[in-house]
Amino acid sequence: MSIIVLNKINKIYGEGDIAVHALRDVDLELQKGIFYSIIGKSGSGKSTLLHILGALDQPTSGEMLLEGKSVYESSADEQALLRRRRIGFVFQSYNLLPEHTALENILMPSHLDGVQPDENHLKEIVDVLEIGDKLTSFPDELSGGQAQRVAIARALITKPAILLADEPTGNLDEASGRDVLKLIKEFQTRLGQTIVLVTHDLEIAAMADTIIEIQDGRIQSIS
Ligand SMILES: Nc1ncnc2c1ncn2[C@@H]1O[C@H](COP(=O)(O)OP(=O)(O)O)[C@@H](O)[C@H]1O
Ligand SMILES: [Mg+2]
Predict the structure, then answer these.
(1) CA within 13 Å, CB half, 112
(2) Is residue 48 part of a domain?
(3) For residue 40, which atom of ligand 1 is closest to its CA?
(4) Residue 215's domain spans which residues?
(5) Which DSSP string corresponds to 112-179?
């Protein structure tokens, strides 16, 4: 069953001489419960594609269906709810709120929705990510790797149907990176999550069910 369908997605940043055609006629169908990795050179359009999949950004042209519903025909409020309830996003630059502690950041999506977080789920995530002693720290007191793990925890806490992660192990050592991947795969199986993970680490990419290669804004191969 497909969970996301992209039809002829184009994304152009800027205009005229400085226009950058970041995505070109991208057609993509993502199946529920499958783990995808996206690989490609720097500047090939990986983050742009992931932001569009997360309804964080709109393309210049094209159509997107999320769970059968047209995203761009939905109101801004409906899109915000989709993002909060159905999608977990790990930003390449973490995007933690500086005025809030690590724990407050992790629980923010649940609080915004007025739902009680699942304590056991929280404990499991915090244990595997080894951030138990950092929960009262503020983002500027965390190392890059710690901030990255807090950002991963925030994306996982709501048990989203779709987890989108932009280079989520980019700042982690090899062993922590592998632990994060194991956790993600465990949730994929247990919760039936669809995962899309951008990485330039081919070993990590190979842990996915399907590898999507992108080159100059086009999908080069799906294997
Ligand atoms: N906000 C932006 N404004 C202008 N150009 C951008 C913007 N974001 C990305 N780009 C350009 O779009 C292309 C694809 O970028 P990106 O999706 O970030 O690639 P990747 O994540 O694969 O490194 C690059 O040429 C980049 O410079
Ligand atoms: Mg990127």
Answers:
(1) 15
(2) yes
(3) 22
(4) 33-56+73-222
(5) HHT----HHHHHHHHHHHT-GGGTTS-GGGS-HHHHHHHHHHHHHTT--SEEEEESTTTTS-HHHHHH
pLDDT value of position 180: 87
What is the Å distance from ligand 2's center to 114 Cα? 32
Which CATH number characterizes residue 82's domain? 3.40.50.300
Domain contains 12: no
Q: How far is the CA of 28 from the centre of ligand 1 (A)?
A: 19
Nearest protein CA to atom 12 of ligand 1, as residue: 22
As a whole number of angstroms, the distance between CA 198 and CA 195 comes to 10
For residue 80, tell me if it sits in a domain.
yes
- Tell me the three state secondary structure of residue 46: helix
**From the CB of 40, is ligand 1 less than 6 Å away?**
yes
Model pTM above 0.90:
yes
How much distance in Å is there from the Cα of 22 to the middle of ligand 1? 6
- Number of domains within the chain: 1
Weakly modelled stretches of the chain, pLDDT under 70: none
209 located within any domain:
yes
